[in-house]
Amino acid sequence: QVQLQESGPGLVKPSETLSLTCAVSGYSISSGYYWGWIRQPPGKGLEWIGSIYHSGSSYCNPSLRSRVTMSVDTSKTQFYLKLSSVTAADTAVYYCARHGFSSGWPIDNWGQGTLVTVSS
Amino acid sequence: QSDLTQPASVSGSPGQSITISCTGPSSDVGGYNYVSWYQQHPGKAPKLMIYEVSNRPSGVSNRFSGSKSGNTASLTISGLQAEDEADYYCSSYTGSNTPGVVFGGGTKLTVL
């Protein structure tokens, strides 16, 4: 059974960089599929941030591309998100996830989510 | 990328059927059979209910079904139950030229 777990600071100051780690268990990242980040501001809807393959190939939401860096460490079965120059608008629950099943990138496994608050 | 359009809320009584629509441009919803639907209960992570327009993952009740016509996809829930009360999100793959995912704004389902 695939399990994903986000970790990282729950509080980030404005203008700084948000850094999150997703630990994957029950499945080898190297076996395939894209691995993604999705966020949800309090009381609002879901927003796709970006996704990465085990080779390092990645794609991002155009609206966030200039601030997003993603990476993957297959030996540690972890992947990472960095979001720079954060503002209060980046306050959200951040989920890591797996795009499984098909070429259409459905998200078949989600982490439990971690709340990141941007505040001084 | 533009959000897909969903109604803000729908409601129904136990045992009834409801349908949630999801409209997007021909570049994603209309162009690919890669629409997914997610159920999200308060404080929980979303759960995949439908993928590739009408396929159900193992373990999802057959009361949930999906379809698509042109640029509009639909999720139908039959035999409504109290536990179906949740937020529902549609999403679409954005294509092989610019791979990614776009979500709808979400629909709050209330079981009366």
Explain how this protein is built:
The complex is a heterodimer of chains A (120) and B (112). Chain A is mainly beta and 120 residues long. Chain A has strands spanning 3-7, 11-12, 18-25, 34-40, 47-52, 58-60, 68-73, 78-83, 92-99, 107-110, 114-118. In chain A, strands 2, 4, 5, 6, 9, 10 and 11 form a seven-stranded mixed β-sheet that branches. Chain A has a four-stranded antiparallel β-sheet with strand order 1-3-8-7, with no helix packed on it. Chain A starts with a strand and ends with a strand. In chain A, 39% of the residues are buried. The model of chain A has no long low-confidence stretch (mean pLDDT 95). By secondary structure, chain B is mainly β. In chain B, 0% of the residues lie in helices and 43% in strands. Chain B contains no helices and nine strands. In chain B, strands 1, 3, 4, 7, 8 and 9 form a six-stranded mixed β-sheet that branches. A three-stranded antiparallel β-sheet of chain B has the order 2-6-5, with no helix packed on it. Chain B is globular, with a radius of gyration of 13 Å. The chains are: A mainly beta (120), B mainly beta (112). Chains A and B meet through strand 5 and strand 10 of A and strand 3, strand 7 and strand 8 of B.
